[in-house]
Specification:
alpha+beta; Arc Repressor Mutant, subunit A; BirA Bifunctional Protein, domain 2; SH3 type barrels; 3 domains; 5-stranded antiparallel sheet; 26% strand; elongated
């Protein structure tokens, strides 16, 4: 009930009477009072005025099931939410849930990861209380060959959600790193379970640097956070909600054709590498060229001195010729 009361307070223009809350949720005044006190103890500033009711003044940057549910406005993402103060990896949790029958749109969020992973098995720094660590379970009826493009869809959603909540301009370093002022704030890891021509499930993991005030020396030149770039603390739950609202929008467009053809133009506008010199780190044959956007299949178009080449995500890494972007 705390989630519902918090959502009601957030959606109200002014005060909400205790009686109104009792009638809306079919509970006693004592139950409402207890829920309000529990929210206050969690850090929410709620004003109570006689003959007026309750009014939420401010909320802290906290993650909890209550906070996530009270912010939720999505149609199907987060229909089931699993929140953990600490877990090994939200992707690992999400895969277990998917295998146990969790529904399409199940969302897993943690305040801390003890075994976070990035692409190619790299460790992902996962401090408590500062960043967003979350994974989404998808069970789409699509061709498995088209699933890799969901990583690009997610990148667009993260960029849009961050821009909406923080006002910071975001770019995408193909295929899925989100950069602000040339430094990385987000990584995305997509994992899939399939049978021949059928998808059992897809898990999309997202890690966003939010409140970090500094980074280890080895990544300081390429990593940043939303707090560093905006100069102020951000609310993680609001960012999470905004990302998934954007995701639902782009996912619907993607499903119409199962590719990027309806989103190529918008993705190219966000492409940090657009018309820039890049180095394609192909293990067999590294080469340099100029990035020219993406194809409807999500491949990066690279013009070299001898030919136009198409780079598939997952095969290689792409770096700016003179730095990370």
């Amino acid at each position: 009930m705390k989630s519902e009361i918090l959502a009601a307070l957030r959606s109200a223009d002014g005060y909400v009477s205790g009686q109104e809350l009792c009638e809306k949720f079919g509970v006693s005044r004592t139950a409402v009072w207890k829920a309000i006190n529990q929210l206050k103890q969690a850090g929410y500033e709620i004003e109570a005025v006689q003959n007026k009711g309750y009014h939420i003044v401010s909320s802290p940057d906290i993650l909890s099931k209550t906070e996530l549910e009270s912010n939720r406005k999505t149609a199907w993402v987060g229909e089931e939410i699993y929140y953990f103060d600490s877990t090994d990896s939200t992707n690992t949790r999400a895969k277990r849930l998917a295998e146990d029958g969790s529904v399409h749109g199940t969302l897993v969020v943690a305040d801390e990861q003890t075994g976070g992973r990035g692409r190619r098995g790299r460790a992902w720094e996962s401090q408590k209380g500062v960043s967003i660590y979350m994974s989404l379970v998808l069970k789409p009826e699509i061709d498995p060959n088209n699933a890799s493009m969901l990583t690009l869809i997610t990148a667009m959603a993260v960029a849009g959600g961050i821009e909406k909540t923080t006002g910071l301009e975001c770019k995408i370093k193909w295929p899925n790193d989100i950069v602000v002022h040339g430094k990385k704030v987000c990584g995305i890891l997509t994992e899939m379970s399939t049978q021949m021509d059928y998808i059992n499930y897809i898990v999309i993991g997202i890690g966003i640097n939010v409140q970090n005030e500094s980074f280890p020396e080895e990544i300081r030149e390429v990593a940043t956070s939303l707090r560093i770039e905006s100069g102020k603390k951000q609310k993680r739950a609001a960012i999470i909600e905004a990302v998934w609202e954007e995701f639902e929008k782009y996912y619907d467009i993607y499903l119409k054709t199962e590719d990027m053809q309806g989103l190529v133009g918008e993705y190219d506008q966000k492409l940090a590498n657009m018309n820039k010199q890049v180095r394609v780190l192909d293990p067999k044959d590294p080469y340099e060229g100029t990035a020219r956007g993406i194809t409807p299949k999500g491949e990066l178009i690279v013009d070299t001195w001898e030919a136009r080449k198409l780079v598939s995500s997952g095969e290689v890494s792409v770096r700016g010729l003179y730095g990370y972007v």
